[in-house]
Amino acid sequence: MTAVHSFPGRSGGEVMRRLLAPLAHYYSDAATVEIRMNRPHQVITERRGIGKQAHEDARLNRAAIERIARSLGNASGTAFDGEEHVKLSTVLPGGHRFECLVGASVQSGLSLAIRCKHPFSPTWEQWGATPFVRDYLTAAVARDANLIVSGATNTGKTTLLNMLLATLPDDRRVVAVEDTPELQIGRFWDGNGLLAAREANTATGMVGWRELYDHLMRITPDHILFGEISTQNAFAALAALNSGVTGFMCTIHAESPEQVIHRKFTQNVAWAGAVMPDIPEYLTDLVDVVVQIKRTPTGFRHITDIWEVREGRYVFKDGREVSGC
């Protein structure tokens, strides 16, 4: 599971730093958005303003990556041995998300991605947002609209959601429900963050999404924030929406606002094995706004679409304000 943990003490921390150094050489750059390895010795970096670049690195063979993953697994209490346990999802020092799979399920023997979480506070202009977009979204948050931020992998969905959260008064009762803490809720002095176990039957002292949902419904939130919607939490998110809450916000992987409503939630719920009829109709009745983000070839992210779900209309489409809205 993705764990929130402290890394070893001073001597152990130094060992971990030395072990991570070949990878840190790439991900420590504040402009780096993600690094990937699709085979031993080759590192792909993606940086803002530069885009993708490939680097050959003799230090990073499969054995080196497996040593790193075993040490990270030990630090986070997650099994990884490169033989029976071949997949690891965890968090590096600095909050960077580490995802690794080795062995027969990968043709090259190795698949690695590190999603970087360097502090980055883009301006509305850097989002490609006109004054209309800025004013529309801040007004939607202020009126407690139920809002979903949509985009492909690593398009800045959480960054935008945090930017919208920053417009709320700090006395709001904001409760975030995530499996990895990424939403910036520390300034909400009556807020709280709940963390779900990503794997069942783990001896971590953490509870699952069902238990967190039950708790959430009993602690009187003003705003319910889900992180990224997945097969594990989609049903809980739908249940939260059905509770009559306003000010619900989440992110989801989708290529368009219509896909969010008509396909992605249904797909995630179905993959989780839950049965719930008429999910698109249900979402159309409960979600106010979907905001779409897309990534440029140079690594920057732009808001491209805003869809008013209940009204069935775009107010911003393909980077342009829709006339008459």
TrEMBL record:
Q: Listed GO molecular functions?
A: ATP hydrolysis activity
Q: Which PANTHER family does this entry report, sorted A to Z?
A: TWITCHING MOTILITY PROTEIN PILT (PTHR30486), TYPE IV PILUS RETRACTATION ATPASE PILT (PTHR30486:SF6)
Name of the molecule in the record: Pilus assembly protein CpaF
Report the family membership: Belongs to the GSP E family.
From which lineage does this chain's organism come? Bacteria, Pseudomonadati, Pseudomonadota, Alphaproteobacteria, Rhodospirillales
The record places domain Bacterial type II secretion system protein E at: 124-263
Q: Which InterPro entries match?
A: P-loop_NTPase (IPR027417), T2SS/T4SS_dom (IPR001482), T4SS_GSP_E_ATPase (IPR050921)
